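Wait, can you check?
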Amino acid sequence: MADKIYQELGVRIARLRMKQGLSQSQIAGMLHIAQTTYSNYENGTHKIPLEQLQVLAAFYKVSYDELLGEPSESDIFDERTMIDKMSNLNICGKIKVLEYIDDISANEKYTWSL
């Protein structure tokens, strides 16, 4: 169970980093840690110290709840945007999107499976 929590946290911090267009090396430098250590945080293989979580939350301007799992309004907005865009597709486009979702859903790397 704890491993899953760290994996999910790693996905969240990776998403925040990529949204800002930053590299792992840049964030690692800000945290004064090795890039490999930061990479392990994103992979969920290392626990992130509380001090590092504080710095990341402040840097990304998110609450601890958002960082630790509560969806933010921007996450909800992103899902609504995807739904809106999909509703504008014709049947062939919708089938293609569903096929793509099935493909990536079959890969554990992209899912929240328990």
